[in-house]
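Researcher: Here's a chain I'd like modeled. Treat it as a single chain, no partners, no ligands.
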Amino acid sequence: MNSKQETKYVMEQSTRDFLGRNKEITDKLPTFNVLFPRFTSNLQQIGDICGLKVADKTGTAVKKEQLRTSLATKAFGIAIKTEAYAKINGNPVLAAEVHFTESELLHAPDSKLIDKANLIYIKANANIGKLAEYGVTPEMLAELKDATTLLNAEIPSMRIERNESKAATHQLNRIFTENDEILEKIDLLVEVVITNHPEFYSQYK
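Model: Modeled as a single isolated chain. Structure tokens:
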């Protein structure tokens, strides 16, 4: 929901409450008993959609960030140990291949982080027999592989959520448009009672 829709949503809630408090007047208006339930139902739908969008976005973002941090931390821990082994044993090519700062890994785009983690895994795994004394174990490599798989699996669900979010936005636009049309008709109906209920009319307007 954009800022304009948020403002409109608050105003429409106030309109709903006002009309609901004046049922002795509004119930006598022609077609009001059809328009008003649709209007209130639409407001409920807007609230439900926005609540779900916020919850889904927050939950997915938190999960993704946890997976990213876990992968980056595991990858960096293995990379610095592998780089130390490479430098001590005169292998500058390997040292350069696994040279990544922790910040570089933490802030890399998802696909780049996965690529870097895979590279670190491949290079460390190829030298696993010599890396034990530097603190790299097969268990650590297995954990790195699992962390890479988990983040990689999360990316499609993020795409699905973005598509669902677009669908929800489209639905919100449709509902707000329908409520605009309903309120235009209610505005016309309220004109009917301008002489009999001037106070109600002035408060509504």
